[in-house]
C-alpha cells in the first residue's frame, strides 16, 4: 500500500516532508559540488578520486581496487580516471608494498593543494546547508500507532 514501509507502518505527512527536504538537500549539495569542481578545472569524478585518496582510512594511498569500491565504479573506469588525473599531475602511481600485481595511487603535492581548496569550499557549503541536510529522525512507533518525525 502507498505510504507504508516494509514493516507495514504508514508514513506520515511529516515523514514525507522530511524525506523530500533531505533529498532536496542532497541534490542541492551535489549540484554545488559539480559546479564548483568544474569551475576549478576538474570533473566531479576527479574530485571524488582525490577525496577518496586523502580520506582513505589509515594511510595516504589506495589501490585501484580499493578506489573502485570507494567510488562505486568498475575497475577499468577507475584506471581511466587515474590515468586522466595522472596526466593532469594530480595523482601518481607507485609500487604496491605487498602485491606486485597492484599499484598504489597517491596524491601529488599539486593534487593535495587542489583538493584542500575544493574541500574547504565543500565544508563551508555543508555548514551553510546544515538544516537542509539534517537527517530525518524517526520515532519508534507507538503500540499500534504509526512512526512519525518530531
TrEMBL record:
GO molecular function, one term: DNA-binding transcription factor activity
InterPro entries found in the cross-reference section: HTH_MarR-typ, MarR/SlyA-like, WH-like_DNA-bd_sf, WH_DNA-bd_sf
Cross-referenced SUPFAM superfamilies: Winged helix' DNA-binding domain
Residue ranges occupied by any HTH marR-type domain in the UniProt entry: 12-150
One example of a Gene Ontology biological process annotation: response to stress
Name of the molecule in the record: Winged helix-turn-helix transcriptional regulator
